[in-house]
Amino acid sequence: MELGLRGKVVAVMASSKGLGKATAMEFAREGAIVFISSRSEEKLRQTAEEIKKESKNDQVYYKSCDMTSEQDITDFFAFVKDEAGRVDVLINNTGGPKAGGFDGVTDEDWYKAFDQNLLSYIRSSRAVLPYMKEQQFGRIINISSSSVKEVLDGLILSNTFRAGMVGFAKTLAREVAGDNIMVNTIGPGKIATDRVAELNQIAADKQNVTVKQVLENTEKQIPRGHMGHPEEFAKIVVFLASSANSYMTGQSLVIDGGLLKAL
Fold first, then answer.
1. Domain covering 9-189+230-255: architecture
2. Counting beta carbons within 10 angstroms of the beta carbon of residue 242, is it exposed (0 to 12), middle (13 to 18) or buried (19 or more)?
3. Over 90: is that where the pLDDT of 211 sits?
4. pTM, entire model
5. 259 Cβ partners below 8 Å, 6+ apart?
6. For residues 157 and 105, is the Cβ–Cβ distance under 8 A?
């Protein structure tokens, strides 16, 4: 299948590691012009070099960007404009908010999670939509969480703001579909990332067992029988963000190996 991504300008947020990095790698392999971001300039430099080497694509650029900073987001997309002149694909992504139940989070935690996991996606979408509307082509993919389908105990911040993200994305998708702009949300299940490792450690401490035991118990519950790999997740993101996807928009999908029982 021809994905039509060669020469497309792709911005992947929070992409120095994990799902963001894997996604940027897949776009580079498809011949896209890829812009990556994270808070660490040094990690970005290393990641950009790795992506270039493995994908054999030298069109990989980077600039630091804290997704909780409006100015950083503005500066990042100004950099993309200066280098490439437009944005064809936006992959919204950030780290997960603080873990904890209702009694374990403060007003400060709520505000920070809002900035990081909802307002940041709104700001970056606002930055790219003028280009997409002018060229009558655009793809926005919001990387979320499986909590958009089934709430996760001990993650009240994620459950709240991921749901808000879905409402935002669904509404935006309906508003811009006529401009050939597709907006979808993809939630990872148990994918082998630093975030999942962090949550596994919290679970192990709470249950007084080893992280290995937590991992083994989790994998027993996944119909596919194993944790997902970032590359498996990334390939689905790349398809939905390509011109091969010409009709699916406003959807909220979960990539979890069949773990969730929710419809």
1. 3-Layer(aba) Sandwich (3.40)
2. buried
3. no
4. 0.94
5. 146, 189, 190, 221, 222, 223
6. yes
